[in-house]
Prior knowledge:
Structural class: alpha+beta
Distance between the termini: 50 Å
CATH class of the largest domain: Alpha Beta
Radius of gyration: 22 Å
Order of helices and strands: EHEEHEEEEHEEEEHEEEEHHEEEEEHHHH
CATH superfamily of the largest domain: FAD/NAD(P)-binding domain
Number of domains: 2
CATH topology of the largest domain: FAD/NAD(P)-binding domain
Largest sheet: 9 strands, mixed
Amino acid sequence: MIKNKNEENYDVTIVGGGLTGKLMASILVNSNIIAKKKLCWIDTDNKSSIDKRVSFINYNNFLKLKKNYGCNFLNKNYMKISKIEIHNMNEKNPLNLEDKNGHGIIIRNDILKENLNFPENDLVIHKSKVASTNCDQLHRYLILEDGKKVKTSLVLSADGNSSLLRKLSKINYINHALNHTIISGYLNCKNFDMFSAKQIFLKDSFIGLLPYSKNMINFVWSLDNGILNKNSKFKYYNELIKRLNYFFSQENIIFISPKSKNIKLQIYPINVKYVKKPFQKRIALIGDAAHTIHPLAGQGFNLSIEDCFDVLKCLQNAKKIGKDFGEVSVLKEYNNLRKYRIKFITLVTTSLFYIFKKQKSYLNKLINFSFEKIDKTSFKNIFKILARGY
């Protein structure tokens, strides 16, 4: 059989130029389990579009990235979180989750991406998008928009929440709209504890506050669509600052619009996506392609990091016994490693969303009473473990 001159053959191909895609490429290159030029990365990331959102990386994942996967984190590039405060309406005191070892770190996505360094001559990088895919018993084929054909034993699909490969491979999933919109950006502030992250539950929204630098925080605001639909000229900064300054008036924490005009809001609808079986013939989903959860607990990217760790574990096990990376037993092993953790975090975050969304008077009192009791017992250590990773 004559090989097509546009066809290239690989052991593993990663699809997706975002944070998860680059992390997976970095981990595989640095692991040395795949021969040079037998790893392919389809990176169509737009370099002119800088992701200035921040991510929370829990303590366990942070240590593994540093010690086991060669990620260089400069102290100036991240903020260490030693305390998480959970606030609710009409509270006496917030639920205070303090950990001397640290819950994890806050780092901006573009800075983290820059820290994921690896020798790019060890793999092949394509910049053209995937147009279609098919497979036979031994390989999966990716046909790119520029006409090239990628032949590979295994595809790792990190192409995001709206994954084209998930659709093309006919991988089923549950999609549930939460009727909320996520607004993310930055605010200047005064008297904010720079080692503390805060989660605030209000009547119409949830607000996560993450320290970014001195006198500046990153916010992730989950707002009920009913509020937005009532006001076509909704002023995000004004409305957010009004809510925050009122809530924290007694603590003298003051929030102000950012001075820089270059800081833009990121606004997008939030849906929960749950993929029961995140694989098909010679393809596995990782990152947001495999699971999308509400950001209120800050665990979305941590699940993606853990996907990459477990993919590597499965490939290492396969290599030890000379097994083809794309064999169904390898894909099933990956699914077995991930399914309980993903199901649990999806259930917890979605349940929290609906519990706090109701904001009924009796329920609100019960929540605050429970927070007071939990705060005085060792039971709150469970929340610390969840935050730090396990």
